[in-house]
Amino acid sequence: xxxxxxxxxxxxxxxxxxxxxxxxxxxxxxxxxxxxxxxxxxxxxxxxxxxxxxxxxxxxxxxxxxxxxxxxxxxxxxxxxxxxxxxxxxxxxxxxxxxxxxxxxxxxxxxxxxxxxxxxxxxxxxxxxxxxxxxxxxxxxxxxxxxxxxxxxxxxxxxxxxxxxxxxxxxxxxxxxxxxxxxxx
Length: 185
Ligand code: SB7
Ligand code: NI
Fold this sequence. Notes:
By secondary structure, the protein is an alpha+beta fold. Helix content is 21%, strand content 24%. It contains 3 helices and 8 strands; from the N terminus they run ααβββββββαβ. It has helices at 28-44, 47-53, 145-158; strands at residues 60-62, 72-77, 85-97, 101-104, 123-124, 126-132, 138-144, 180-182. Strands 1-2-3-6-7 form a 5-stranded antiparallel β-sheet. The protein has a 3-stranded mixed β-sheet with strand order 5-4-8, covered by helices on one side. Bound molecules: [hydroxy(3-phenylpropyl)amino]methanol (SB7) and nickel (II) ion. The site of [hydroxy(3-phenylpropyl)amino]methanol has 17 residues, from strand 1 and helix 3. [hydroxy(3-phenylpropyl)amino]methanol binds at residues 58-62, 65, 104, 108-112, 149-150, 153-154, 157.
């Protein structure tokens, strides 16, 4: 299982590389990676498991964060009154997006960043994505709200981009023209 000690932090070169596409069929090692990424975030949303293993909660985890430079991430998001969203995305792509932008009103965090970085991170409000599942089957989803924001955060990890790269250094809380804030919790 993946523990916090397996997660690389800011300054590690893996977080700044453009990750490699995955080829199918998956190797046993690739399958294990996918399963473990998803298991980490499911575990991290269970208070007891978190406490037992010292996990930090997250809604997504990308392979480069465990020092594997491959285009894979997992998302697991449970929001009140919504269907839970849980998947592994292999070679993911945004195929279209809204003009409208959004940002998390409380800012973003990252399991690879051990400090609070304040500021608005502009994201597309709505995206249509394509990715492959572990069986090599392509799937397509429309995402909005937190799942859309989280998908863009994870996709950035596959391209060596950190959330704070998008924050205006001079004016971190500068209004983003036309953006609609997303309130979490
Ligand atoms: C806030 C948190 C996340 C995504 C979007 C907004 C995920 C945090 C966990 N990760 O570091 C995953 O890369
Ligand atoms: Ni992150």
